[in-house]
Each structure stands twice: as C-alpha cells, then as structure tokens.
Amino acid sequence: MTDKYMQLDLQVPSGRIYGFGERQREFSLVNGTWTMWPNGRETPYDNGGGGLQTYGVHPFALIQTQQKDEWMGIFFRNSNA
Domain locations in the chain? Predict the structure, then answer.
C-alpha cells in the first residue's frame, strides 16, 4: 500500500504567520515544516521539522501582508493529513 499525502509550498508576503494547528512553540511561525494532523499526545517543543503537533487541528493560517494593517487568511478545506 502506498501512503498518499498532500504538500503545499507557497511564498507569502511576510514572515508574520500564525495558525496551522496546536503545537508547543511561540505563537508566530518561522520557516519550517508545519504538519496539521493530530497525533493525540503531548509533544516536545515544535522546532519546525514536522510531526510535532499536538491534539488540535486548525486548517487556517493568518498572514500579515507588507501593509501594516492588512492581513490575509488561508483556509485548507481538505480532510487529508
């Protein structure tokens, strides 16, 4: 059986990114791999290497644009991990 998954790579207009599920780390995300499926256990600090998310799945990201008071959101309407 072959494992199947979806991967989305994108460039965003700033480094102020928030969201992508529940994890143990600062509120703001940096460059890294941010997985969004629950693993059902408490995990150590998420360093952006993927696979260290906790219980909650929130397929939404909030990103600040280059304009100070302008934000955009991305909602991932998908049931895949």
Answer: 1-9+17-81
pTM higher than 0.70, yes or no? Answer: no
CA dihedral 74, 77, 79, 81 (to 10 degrees): -20
Residue 12 tokens read as: 């965003």
pLDDT digits (tens, 9 = 90+) for 39-68: 777 778 888 888 888 887 788 888 888 888
63-65-59 Cα angle (round to 5): 15
CA diameter of the chain = 48
**Residue 55 to residue 2: CA distance in whole angstroms:** 25
